[in-house]
Amino acid sequence: MKLIHSPTMKLAHSPIVTLIHSPIMKLIHSPTMKLVRSLRAAACGLLVGAALGALPVSGARAQHPAKPWPERPVRVVVPAPPGSAPDALVRMVGMKLSEIWGQPVTVDNIVGASGNIGTDRVAKAAPDGYTLLFNTIGPIAVNITLFGSKLPYDPLRDLVAVSLVAKMPNLLTVNPSLPVNNLQELIALAKASPPGKLRYGTAGPGTTQHLSGELLNTLAGIELTGIPYKSSAQMTTDGIGGQIEVLFHNAPVLIPHIKSGALRPIAITSEQRSPSVPNVPTMIEAGLPGFEITAWFGFMAPAGTPTALVHKISADIARVVAMPDVQERILGQASIPVGNTPEEYDTFIRAEIVKWSKVVKETNVQTD
Question: Is residue 168 within 8 Å of residue 136, measured between CB atoms?
């Protein structure tokens, strides 16, 4: 009650204050002032929006790259020569990826040092998704043991798995001039011949051709001489021409020559027979338990490539591998299509490194 009758409250209700208050209130509630307040609020909203736009964005928006990928051609390095099995496979897959991405996918064959040169080139490339590796088994799973500290990269540290495309066995063949029709006859002939007389070709140390020949020597107790070639194409040509008597090579490369009669099949290096050559027994069936060598090819990227981008590329590769025409082509080459995730491929690679480390040590494979 004291407040109501206080001098301050009496002044508030005085005629003078009432005279002042009345026109001010009319002005405040006039249309002009309402417009001013609306414009002021809009201006504040724009300033706040601009300030927020300058801050880092979190949540769903932050997961999207600032620029779409790819914006330019994607380069795929394959450490194998033109016309080889991995070269043919990556070109088929690359053509499909180009259609999905709307950008050219170029294949760059960089050979040398058992695939180490091309692989190292990708390991040291910018991790932006524009340089990928279509890896072969040697530079990733074998050479880390075979070359040791001389290897210029670490496949587990410097590269990241993207997707395994296909597994591919080798075929053991002989020149038709050699008087053998099966594995046991080949072993018998090798034992009856001077050590090293029978020769087989290799595409370089650590390749599946090299490992196949040395594993045959170890398990069968024979001594075939490995002849290194700079080009697997020349190795195949010499096998057909009789310059070398024994030829291990990727199944897709040799199947046409088997069908033409230019080479005689002895066995296949997979665990099971292939529908593409159903009459050719496995090395295990032919009498060498434990003989299983399968080449494999997949995509890898430089370490540091954004995880989201790695998964996008992997998903697109899996989409291509699942296409009916791609499946038919791979299966028709005595191979197995895969198209797995980065995590699955990484686990596979680590297991293969352990496996081939043991084989390299048991067979005493050398780099020269």
Answer: no
> For the domain that residue 223 is a member of, what is the CATH number?
3.40.190.10
C-alpha closest to that of 213 among 269, 144, 175:
269
Q: 333: which residues sit within 8 A by CB, 6+ positions away?
A: 85, 168, 251, 252, 255, 276
- Asked whether the CA dihedral 119, 120, 125, 128 is positive or negative, the reply is positive
Work out how many domains the chain is built from and give that number. Answer: 2
CA neighbours closer than 13 Å in the CB half-sphere of residue 44: 6
The band of 67, judged by pLDDT with boundaries at 50, 70 and 90, is confident
Residues 6+ apart with CB under 8 A from 144: 151, 154, 155, 353, 357
Where in the sequence is the domain holding 87, given as residue range(s)?
A: 74-168+295-363
Express each pLDDT in 271-327 by its tens digit: 999 999 999 999 999 999 989 999 999 999 999 999 999 999 999 999 999 999 999
* pTM for the whole structure: 0.76
State whether 254 and 221 are in the same domain.
yes
Place of tokens 């197995």: 336
Asked if 136 contacts 130 with a C-beta cutoff of 8 angstroms, the reply is no
CA distances from 51 to 41, 44, 45, 356 (A): 15, 11, 10, 58
Report cis status (omega within 30 of 0) of the bond before 139: no
For 78-100, the pLDDT digits (tens) are 999 998 899 999 999 999 999 99
**Phi then psi dihedrals of residue 176, to 5 deg:** -55, -20
β-pair partners for 92: none
CA-to-CA dists, residue 278 to 88, 112, 281, angstroms: 23, 35, 8
| Whole-number Å distance between alpha carbons of 230 and 214 | 18
319 within a domain of the structure (yes/no): yes
Work out the end-to-end distance of the chain between its first and last CA atoms, rounded to an integer number of angstroms: 109
**139 and 177 part of one domain:** no
The tokens for 237 are: 């040509």
Inter-residue contact 82 to 109 (CB < 8 Å):
yes
Quick one: tokens of 143?
A: 């050479």
335 occurs within a structural domain: yes
CATH number at residue 320: 3.40.190.150
